[in-house]
């Protein structure tokens, strides 16, 4: 069910096309939250409680995530630098 809601939210195909004023966005505004509400009701309470407890412990792991973020940003910066140098040499020649 969660995958269906996600597919509908990301799909360019809607029940009512978006180019129709007001109604086109209204179906997304109503159907996606209603689908999320149904999905949340389908999750067993124990699973939901475990997920919320895990989310509460997430700030403790933030330091590891910050190092990972720094590493990924460094890789992107290096790739950007390489592309920029390649482009500069290509246009100079």
UniProtKB/TrEMBL annotation:
Protein's cellular compartments: Endomembrane system
Keywords associated with the record: Membrane, Transmembrane, Transmembrane helix
Span of the signal peptide: none
Recorded topology in the membrane: Multi-pass membrane protein
Primary localization class, coarse: membrane
Membrane-crossing segments per the record: 65-87
Pfam family, one: DUF1232
Domain DUF1232: 1-33
Listed InterPro entries: DUF1232
The protein's name in its UniProt record: YkvA family protein
């Amino acid at each position: 069910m969660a995958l269906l809601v996600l597919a509908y939210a990301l799909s360019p195909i809607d029940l009512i096309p978006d180019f129709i004023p007001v109604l086109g966005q209204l179906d997304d505004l109503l159907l996606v939250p209603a689908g999320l509400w149904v999905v949340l009701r389908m999750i067993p309470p124990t699973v939901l409680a475990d997920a919320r407890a895990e989310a509460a412990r997430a700030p403790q792991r933030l330091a590891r995530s910050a190092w990972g973020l720094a590493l990924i940003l460094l890789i992107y910066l290096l790739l950007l630098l390489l592309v920029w140098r390649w482009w500069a040499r290509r246009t100079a020649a």
